[in-house]
Write a structure and sequence with these properties.
With about 280 residues, this protein is of the alpha+beta class. Helix content is about 15%, strand content about 25%. The strands form three sheets. Strands 1, 2, 5, 6, 7, 8, 10, 13 and 15 form a nine-stranded mixed sheet that branches. A four-stranded antiparallel sheet has the order 9-14-11-12, with no helix packed on it. Strands 3-4 form a two-stranded antiparallel sheet. The protein is globular and about 45 Å long. The relative contact order is 0.22.
Length: about 280
């Protein structure tokens, strides 16, 4: 599967779209939102960033905030958590009734986890000397359920692209069909969890700003490091979780889950020798 079919979101999912997702574990909708919407969200999150940098915010609802520096040497937030609670533009986007149509991809009782897990996450990847988030190794999102002491449950990660994302940006790579794996493969399919080696079966998700890419939380995926540096490597994506199970909102009193204590090690230049970035595809 060197390439894949992209779709247009029309308010409801067609049988073809549902079957594509069920087979592959991801689906890509082009031109979901306008450039105006993209710009509004970027401007809003930059305002949040200025506030958090000034106030030295370290955690939101128990979730650590990931800081780094950009191509100008300025401090930036590279991983926001619960962005919807601090940005009106993100809140409005996440509460758009149109996203409810994606429940057809989930078991009965699915909901957007806007007050749960990490809320709406905003990732800012950039390849600079001071970056703490320029790639992310192989992983499955559902594995975090283990750290919560829960049974692995179905979930969707609804990704909204704020920048064009191609191979030059590193980009999201997925292993289609791996969302159907058993628990052992969910945790241990990749020989070295969180490495960023290429895989002969991976598919590059090439998206444009305004696109929506949804992936099953159980699918193996990674974010490859960009071969470029500075502004040319910038890649911003916002993720909204859709989940099932008992409602468990987080508050300012929430503790930090074990796996989030490892967050500083993920995608950081400082720890680049711990997770090799490149290898020829197997």
């Amino acid at each position: 599967m060197a390439s894949y079919k992209k779709f247009t979101f029309e308010g409801t999912l067609t049988t073809e779209q549902i079957e594509f997702f069920q087979k592959n574990g991801f689906i890509h909708f082009e031109n979901y939102a306008s450039q105006e919407t993209v710009d509004t969200i970027i401007n809003s999150t930059e305002q949040v960033q200025r506030q958090w940098v000034k106030s030295n915010v370290q955690k939101v609802n128990g979730v650590p905030i990931k800081y780094g520096t950009d191509e100008n040497g300025d401090t930036i937030v590279q991983r926001f958590a619960f962005t919807n609670q601090h940005s009106d533009a993100v809140r409005a986007f996440a509460n758009n009734p149109a996203l409810q149509a994606l429940k057809v991809l989930m078991p009965e009782g699915a909901r957007l986890g806007l007050e749960e897990k990490d809320g709406v996450v905003f990732n800012h990847y950039v390849n600079t000397e001071g970056s703490n988030f320029y790639h992310m190794g192989w992983h499955t999102d559902s594995a975090r359920d283990i750290f919560y002491g829960k049974k692995v449950a179905p979930m969707l990660n609804i990704g909204f692209y704020l920048d064009d994302s191609t191979a030059d940006k590193g980009g999201l790579r997925v292993l289609p069909g791996t969302h159907k794996q058993g628990l052992w493969d969910l945790l241990f399919r990749k020989k070295y969890y969180m490495n960023n080696y290429g895989d002969k079966d991976e598919v590059l998700v090439e998206a444009k700003a305004g696109d929506l890419v949804i992936h099953d939380g159980r699918i193996w995926h990674r974010v490859a490091p960009s071969p470029l540096t500075g502004a040319a490597s910038r890649r911003r994506v916002m993720y909204i979780p859709m989940i099932v199970g008992k409602y468990k909102p987080k508050t300012e009193q929430s503790t930090t889950p074990l796996y989030l204590h490892l967050l500083p090690l993920v995608g950081s230049k400082k720890h680049k020798n711990l997770i090799p970035a490149f290898r020829k595809a197997a």
